[in-house]
Specification:
single chain; 3-stranded antiparallel beta sheet; 12 strands
């Protein structure tokens, strides 16, 4: 009998997978966390994120937890992509609990601290140069890591549903195939870009995303915010 997949099923499996990955790739050093599945209109092309602080807990503060979120629109994209996203955020979490600053520019630019920890945890990079905007963000699970994931007791079938639009299901009812009914995700367009001086916090806006702006008072470069 085919298993009925629900949000509860996925969330439960994600917490179990988190513990498996923590044990096998992070030496069991990561804390208990909250794992959520929700969309964010400000991050339409983001597959997941980890909070920078503990945001779950009781009123007294005896229990405190970080949150890792996976975006529901991408949950059934590919098993390894889902594991890639979860482990990517676990690298961020590992660095945060060890007081390692691995991002800048409002969390968009991933620095060498992120790169080095990612490689330790089973990732690799296709390029030996960082992306101009996102730095060392584009790590990918190595084949060795994928092979190891295949040996772990993870229920891959759970990651077979995702959040879709009503129009998608309507197209299926009208006889279209899943590939034909699938909607392309729009690429957001920004009209202006906000820049901040890391030192004096002065703010300015430009219409171009790629610029080299120096603060005249602090003599350091402004950083663009996403």
């Amino acid at each position: 009998m085919m298993q009925t997949i629900t949000i509860e099923t996925i969330t439960s499996e994600l917490h179990r997978v988190y513990e498996i990955l923590n044990k096998n790739f992070f030496d069991g050093k990561l804390p208990i966390i909250a794992i959520t599945i929700q969309s964010d209109a400000r991050r339409t092309l983001t597959m997941g994120w980890c909070t920078t602080h503990e945001i779950w807990g009781d009123k007294e503060g005896r229990t405190k937890m970080f949150e890792i979120n996976l975006t529901p629109e991408f949950l059934d994209l590919d098993f390894y992509e889902t594991m890639d996203t979860l482990m990517h955020e676990m690298v961020h979490l590992y660095n945060r609990i060890h007081d390692v600053q691995d991002v800048s520019r409002s969390g968009t630019y991933h620095n060498k601290h992120f790169k080095n920890e990612s490689i330790k945890r089973g990732f690799e990079y296709e390029s030996d140069k960082p992306d101009k905007k996102y730095g060392w963000s584009f790590s990918r699970l190595s084949q060795e890591t994928k092979n190891k994931l295949d040996t772990l007791e993870i229920n891959k079938e759970v990651f077979s549903i995702a959040r879709r639009s009503p129009q998608y299901f309507q197209r299926l009812n009208e006889g279209e195939t899943p590939d034909e009914a699938q909607e392309e995700k729009p690429t957001p367009r920004k009209k202006s870009f906000k820049w901040t001086c890391p030192s004096c916090k002065a703010i300015l806006r430009t219409t171009k995303p790629e610029m080299n702006i120096i603060c005249g008072d602090c003599e350091i470069s402004f950083e663009v915010e996403d």
